[in-house]
Specification:
This protein folds into 2 domains: about 1-70, no CATH class; about 85-214, Cytochrome Bc1 Complex, Chain D, domain 2 (Orthogonal Bundle), CATH 1.10.760.10. The chain is mainly alpha-helical. The model is unreliable at about 1-15, about 45-50 and about 145-150 (pLDDT under 50). The chain has 9 helices and 4 strands, in the order αααααβββαβααα.
């Protein structure tokens, strides 16, 4: 309850600063009266910045830093070896995934770099199923942002079996539809989708089962 109460002013009034949002914002009534009161225009709140390495006792990091630390230390999703479809179907689907070229953008494994914050995560395999790059995908897979027209990132597929909304912007809940939307004029996936289309129904189901097992 105490944590919820602390968060309320930020959520309701949007005034507290942090590393990402460093400008104080006026509440609606303050905005009508001309903006922030003078006492709030320069307010060195603890959320303004955090230097973790400043001393052995860094105190309490701001919410943004704590959230980043929480996300950094989350364990990766654990893929299923038997669900859906059974162990053999998932194994077959993994083979199909590589054979038809899906790994071109969805690289199964990357190796992490050096980490001074979490040494145990240095130089270890991350089974992302992504190359973390932006690709030309044409339309309709294009980003909705004008500055990224006809491009899209290759979102990691790990944890796919736990997702409801698919593609980089969550536009579909149908995995087969998500695969087929990779094909369009100018898409880098145009060499892969015909390979998928040539699979028989059982091979396609194996692939879908593999993806849902991740």
């Amino acid at each position: 309850m105490g944590q919820t109460l602390v968060s309320v002013p930020f959520l309701v009034f949007g005034r507290l600063r942090n590393e990402l949002f460093q400008n104080e914002r006026a509440s609606p009534d303050e905005a009508q009266r001309g903006g922030l009161p003078p006492r709030c225009r320069l307010n060195p709140t603890p959320e303004d910045g955090t230097n973790i390495a400043a001393s052995p006792n860094s105190g309490v990091p701001c919410d943004v830093v704590q959230f980043a630390m929480f996300m950094r230390l989350l364990a990766p999703p654990t893929p299923s070896t038997s669900n859906p479809g059974g162990t053999q179907s998932i194994a077959n689907g993994r083979h199909v995934f590589g054979a038809i070229g899906c790994a071109m953008g969805h690289t199964p494994t990357l190796v992490t770099g050096e980490s001074k914050i979490t040494p145990g995560l240095s130089q270890v395999n991350a089974n992302l199923f992504s190359d973390l790059l932006v690709h030309r995908m044409g339309s309709p897979m294009a980003s909705r942002k004008a500055e990224l027209a006809r491009t899209s990132s290759a979102p990691p597929l790990w944890g796919l079996g736990q997702r409801i909304f698919l593609l980089h912007d969550g536009r579909t809940t149908d995995l087969l539809d998500a695969i087929q939307e990779h094909a369009s004029q100018g898409s880098e996936a145009n060499g892969v989708i015909p390979n998928f289309s040539r699979l028989n129904s059982q091979q396609q189901q194996h692939l879908l089962n593999f993806l849902r097992s991740l």
